[in-house]
Amino acid sequence: MSSNMNGWGLTARLITKHFGVLGDKISEAIANFDPETATEADRDRLADTLRETAQKLAAARSSFNKEHADVVKLRELIVNDEKASTTLADRLASGSISEATVSLFCDELEANKARLPLEVQEEIDAQEYMSELQKIVDALSEQLAQFDAAAKKALQNLATAKAQKDLQELRAERQSQLANLSGLKGQSTALNALTRRAEKVSNEAAGLRIVADIAQKPLDQAAEIEAIRKSVAQADTAGETTLERLQRLSGQKAEVVAA
Length: 259
What we know:
The protein is 85% helix and 0% strand. The chain has 259 residues and is mainly α.
């Protein structure tokens, strides 16, 4: 018997009779399976072992049901035969039945009573075997459930780690972009040259405006004087008569006519 199976409560007789090589295979599968480090191949092997054991469990249940039915049937037969023995005794005493027939009946009753403990033991063995198989199926199922839970957790951790990696890469990319923009603003020779050119053009425009203002000043003064002259001339001739206007335009002075 494999020492690994001792903890499962199976007797050497049950292993030899029912398990054989499968007993070692099951015990090793359970003992060596670590859900945290197992691979998919390990899981597949454990699943195969679970299927084989489940098939054994199904057969064991069928066998137990048969053994149990045999025990129930045999017990009922013994009880009925024991009840019939009183009637047979009366018939034997009255001579209505032969001794040979009664002896055969007694032989069968004694044989059934002797066989009952064996049938009961077979029922017990079948039930024990079925129970142990159920424990093993439960253990294998638990191992698979633990593996699937560990695998799910690992996938979740992987997804979280990947998301964190993507986030950090995005942050690094943005930092790099900001650094490039900052460097362009503070160190770009093209931008500096453009700024200096704009300042130069602005200064040139201011200089031209100064020169234009200087040249415009005499023109503005001459226009102002001309405007004064026109206003004076218009004031001098505002009240003259037609004769006085004619004399003014001809260069003659008006004569004073005495009364």
